[in-house]
Design brief:
This protein is an alpha+beta fold. It contains eight helices and four strands; from the N terminus they run ααβααβαααβαβ. Bound molecules: flavin mononucleotide.
Length: 195
């Protein structure tokens, strides 16, 4: 698989084929991709909901703003979470790491305060998002990254004591009529980014 071609052809899917459903094998492979995502000092401050067709997905779609139809018609959605509490994160993750990693965390991250730690955890979780957006097209799976969701509503619907949602991804197969696919609408990218 040529990764450059994959990135030229992948796109944020706006219209899904509502009849297409991912297989169990594909879901298992996606779980493994998420598990293998890298993070600073291997902190893995995340957890993932993988939600298939059903009442829960329908309920979340009602709180998905402009993404409502995508959540309703996509095969699955993945909700990416980070630890709600820095204390729990430190107890459950940081304390398991090698002393060098813990020293790095104390010196470079924890000293900047709770908000900075929360932002740092979110940055790690966005790496998992990037892995998904790059890897899934190589499996022929279309995706929609979604910040445009009501995170507070997602949080109360999913109700995880330990984790809070930060971003979601819809997965499935595009409707061939989706006009935003690159064969119909060329990609728009900056060319002036190299300094
Ligand atoms: C973190 C993130 C959040 C995004 N949120 C949304 C969203 O809520 N709804 C949507 O339709 N597109 C969303 N997008 C898609 C971007 O608008 C899209 O990636 C960008 O315009 C480039 O287009 P392409 O992905 O088709 O190449 C998001 C993308 C990223 C990376």
């Amino acid at each position: 698989m040529n990764i450059l071609k994959t990135l030229q052809e992948r796109y944020t899917t706006k219209l899904y084929d509502p009849t297409h459903r991912l297989s169990k094998e594909e879901i298992e492979q996606i779980k493994e991709l998420l598990r293998l995502s890298p993070s600073s000092i291997n902190s893995q401050p995340w957890a993932f909901d993988i939600i298939s067709e059903g009442k829960l997905k329908a309920h979340l779609s009602e709180h998905s703003m402009n993404n409502k139809e995508r959540v309703r018609t996509a095969s699955h959605i993945i909700v990416i979470h980070v630890y709600r509490s820095v204390k729990t994160f430190e107890e459950e993750r940081i304390s398991t790491l090698a002393e060098g990693a813990q020293a790095f965390y104390r010196a470079k991250v924890a000293t900047r305060g709770e908000d900075a730690v929360q932002g740092w955890m979110e940055r790690q979780a966005y790496i998992a998002l990037g892995v998904l957006l790059t890897a899934l097209p190589t499996m022929g799976i279309d995706t929609t990254p979604m910040e445009g969701i009501d995170l507070q509503a997602y949080d109360s619907i999913l109700g995880h004591a330990k984790y809070r949602p930060i971003v979601a991804v819809a997965l499935g197969r595009r409707d061939p009529k989706d006009e935003t696919q690159p064969t119909l609408t060329p990609k728009s990218r900056r060319t002036d980014i190299f300094l």
